[in-house]
Amino acid sequence: MDAKADGWSSWPAPAKLNLFLLVTGRRDDGYHALQTVFRLLDWGDTIHLRLRDDGAIRRVGASVPGLPEHEDLVVRAANLLQREGKSAQGVDISVDKRIPSGAGLGGGSSDAATVLRALDRLWQLDLGVERLAALGLALGADVPVFVRGHNAWAEGVGESLRPIALSPAWYLLADPGVHVNTGALFQSAELTRNAAPATMVDFVSGVSLGNAFEPVLRRREPAVEAVFQVLAEIGTPRLTGTGSGCFVEFATRELAEAAQVRVASRVSTRVVGGAARSPLLDALEAEG
Which of 17, 92, 176, 243 could form a disulfide with 50 if both were Cys (CB 3.0 to 4.6 A apart)? Predict the structure, then answer.
């Protein structure tokens, strides 16, 4: 679908990686306290929007096969924004889906964030990033980082964000094809919930902080363990978020592509770049 064709506009919804993920305890509200670093990528989904003057919010096509329209985060985001901004306008929403569901790459959250930021602009609401991030948190803990559009050190349930500068890097991504039930993982008796809190100094100095969900998922899902075994031949594989997606970090694209060739016959992979900031911010600035 071409941007601006037949009234449609197109907006990037980038994927993310969790460069580490610790569970440091339980909060008073029952949620787990987390620490992580969100790394935005230069690859992801594309959201297409076409304004309507009848106030209706419609999804055109399915963003995730089998997902009912009323449960789709892009539709929920548009409805939430419409109510918050008291807008009489509506929108048609179509999604070019590239980020696999359940892989821990943030696809649904990023799609929702892009709808919030882009529709705020198109509906001329001008609610501001803080209000949009608060709306995003009502949709999911990962949505605010995509709304803000910067790599971030995150705590709380993932919503307490501090921008962090990250060195350029390239990533070899592998999707084992396992859709992970996040709720079930959090309830696992094997999950380490009392990790010692890390600091930014720990992270920047290269201390291996790991992902609390990795050992649980590798024991439960043979497909994830198999991908880890292959990726271990070309670097240090890591799990992203609470999904099944795995990645290895490289300093240059050339190194990542050379590693991809070595494992190509056994694992389906993709080489993507780490973004200095969200490509959505670039698209919003280009719109003026």
Answer: 92
